[in-house]
Amino acid sequence: xxxxxxxxxxxxxxxxxxxxxxxxxxxxCYKWPETIxxxxxxxxxxxxxxxxxxxxxxxxxxxxxPEFYGLWITLLLIEKRDLPELKESTVWIVKSFYTxxxxxxxxxxxxxxxxxxxxxxxxLEKKFRPAKVLRLLYDAIVDHQVEVRIEASRAMxxxxxxxxxxxxxxxxxxxxxxxxxxxxxxxxxxxxxMAAVVQAHPFTTPPAIKPMLQALC
Length: 217
Known about the structure:
single chain, elongated, PSME4, Leucine-rich Repeat Variant, ARM-type_fold
């Protein structure tokens, strides 16, 4: 979430900085209430933040890119604009994030996709949008980085569980073909994908899942 601040009244001394309370609020990203109450602590210990790990450094570096940051804010504010429908370019923007940046950013994008779909499921079910999202997951499930494949399987589980991804012959054939591939990456992706789909149906066994169960067993 972006930090909102008054550029004309920034804390310019150490004492002022340590006595300033920063707060984030999703509502405030697009509309402020008439009054905001802010409590400033009389005494507050200096915050000793740990150093960023490699994953955090990659994410920070990505957000330092003005184009990336601008597109990301555009996605965050889609719902808040009360648009009658989701822009056709939204899925394309997410896809561009996925294909342009490092594997750590890919993992973040896959997590964001799940939130995006849940928040806009009725709009994202229209036209060919589910196919575009599924195509992205197909690419992610065979990514050379294992962390990306694992996150892709989680996304596939989540979106299958809410029936955004339909379990049909096309999905079954795709994962079965991956299983037959001699590449370790593809085979691992196939197992992760099949396991995600099976776990999303704990109480039922649709006909399309039976070939997956046979392959896993």
